[in-house]
Amino acid sequence: MATSSSDIGSRRLDLAGTRDFHVAGAGRSRRAALSAFNRDWLAEVWRSATGGARIEGVALAAVGSLGRGDAGPLSDYDLVLLHSERSLPTKELTALADRIWYPIWDAGVRLDHSVRTVTQCRQVAANDLTAAVGLLDLAPVAGDEELVAAARSTVAHDWRGNARKRLPQLVEALSARHTRQGDLAQSIEPELKEAHGGLRDMTVLTALAEAWLADRPHGGVDRAHELLLDVRDAVHVVTGRGRDRLGREDHDAVAALLGHPDADDLLTAVSGAGRLIAYALDGTVRRAGQSQRARALRVGPRRPQMTPLGHGMFASDGEVVLGSARLAESDDTMALRAAVVAARAGLPIAPTTLENLAAAVPPLPTPWPAQARDLLGDLLASGPGLVTVWEGLDQVGIVEQWLPEWAAVRSRPQRNAVHRHTVDRHLVETVVRAAGLVRRTSRPDLLLVGAVLHDIGKVRGAHDHSVTGAETARTVATRWGFAPHDVSVLETLVREHLTVIELATRRDHQDPATVDAAVAAVDGDREVFELLVALTEADASAAGPLAWTDWRATLLEQLAAAVRVRLDAPRPVPGAPPAPAAETDDHGLRPEVAATVRAGEPQVHVVSGGGSHRLDIVDVDRVGLFADTAGLLAAEGHTVRTAILRTVGDVAIDEWHVESPSGAVPDPERIVRGLARLGRGDRGPLQTLDRRRAHLARPSGESTLGSPGQARALVVPGASTEATVLEVRAQDRPGLLHELGAALAGAGVSVRSAHIATYAGQTLDTLYLTGADGLPLPPARVAQVVSLVIDTCDGLAPS
User: In which element (H, E) is residue 430 found?
Assistant: First the structure.
């Protein structure tokens, strides 16, 4: 052969790597060249295997990307050795197949192969849906081309003839694959082939068109397909492997190869392409279903069943359609009306109707009239039906007509571990969550608009998206015709949308400074605070399960309760005498409880709610109690989220919030026994934790590739007037809180409260510290404690 099999892989990579990936049209030219190279080499393999002789009724054919002509630099070969029933004896056919397959394997090319007759192709296609779709791409490589044409036309004929039977199977298979592989547009490491909106969905679009059930969209969809193919090719070149997943470690290299300014720009483009393909597939599947039902019911001319929905809109075969295109030309609110009707009905708007609305509806005046603003509020309040309708509106540009700022966040990735969606999709999900909370406030319209705008500042170059977003929200709210006071409220909601959850999870809500900060965020306005709390919950729950857990919900409600007490308290009258101090019962510590604790028997009370548990622990105060309690809870398999500690005389009254990954409820009797033993100096209860830590690699303070480096401990100025507040950021590990507590106790520093959060294996702990005198630490002492905390987190402090 002219080309030795040993260098086929490198030749394919060289052919791809020598072409400019970022030049317009380079992808098509590159794939055409690769396709020609693949076919030429396989033709050489064929000539070598056959000795150059013509064999009637035998052919080498390709399926998959090789058959379609869009294979990547390192894509698999999917080959079929076709033969007629009387072409060659079985022994000779097997020998011919071996002479073809072995050189391909020797070249290091991944190969999927089969030997079949036309009849066998029909049988396989009839029994295997994936094979049926694949065989529609059957293309000749060498040998008897008429045999290949016969096989392909026969499979296609069967595919069209059995379309009514196969469509439900295809829809079920699509749903299963998409559930398994996820949504390409919403992934930070997208699976370019199998995910919803990926390359395989393009083959399904073609298969639906081949079944004559529906035409598939072209134009933008084809460009999206080309983009994903370009990214797939770049992944092959960058990794040197035939991968279909765009991994985090390859973002920068792939972006550079394709000419993107940065990885986020690449991911935005990939997400946009995936969304377009997914939207096209979903719509084409609906078209196919409608066509199938029409065929099944047709006994004469069929009139579409039109169910009136109001405002000139009708429900027709699972979609919302416009009764007359002329309606769109005369009403500048028609797109809003159509969207409200569709979202409330839980139906998508038909693509043709969307195109008519985008082209014909006059632009709204600035500022918007009250009617348009009310319709926007109705749309945002429509619940889960909003997601599909908003996506359709976005695909045809209507959302950008209403909100030009949307373009900057559309398909923009989020690298925060708690987020599961792109910025724009997260905004829509937040609106859906907020729609379920509108009865908590007297201004649901402001809550919903705040939800759709709260992350609008997450644009390229924004230093603080909350500040940037607040400025944008002011502009948008003014354009939408809100009154000046409402504009100010919306600006506050967007600017402060992270404030309450950060105070609740990272600060001690019993500290007056924490409540002061929350009150200041809303300028003392109770209604704005309720809006902010509802927006906080909607935002966190829309982000994903890492952002909204039982313990976070509990902490938010505790802070909200404390702030409400402050906001509802009567304001002092100037010159009036101070109110008398309330009678207390020694901070709730009953004498009999204090006596039991002092006798050496701690008291533990557990209150469970969902997956989180509150533990009220009363014990004799001593140096190291915090560390012992944290270690005991870790040894029992519980994850500490918050610890709020206070002392009455010689008795500690502590409140711990924990989660149990195993689902186990904390056993108060076991905790009492463990604390009692630890109080007597018996370290036995911590042996389980010690064994677990012994098998863990200790963290290193050295910064290596892919490592965040040394732990950090930052003083938070102004967070409290009663304690020194440290934020600790480090790699999480079992018992870390116990180690920190023990190190601080050894240094004579008391932990007054601790607030724990963990994301992607990294801990973000907030510690309120005091000296032996119960006062904040002096500056010199703070520096020593910061160093001690960092060394402890990095495993460098003496044990």
Answer: helix 423-435
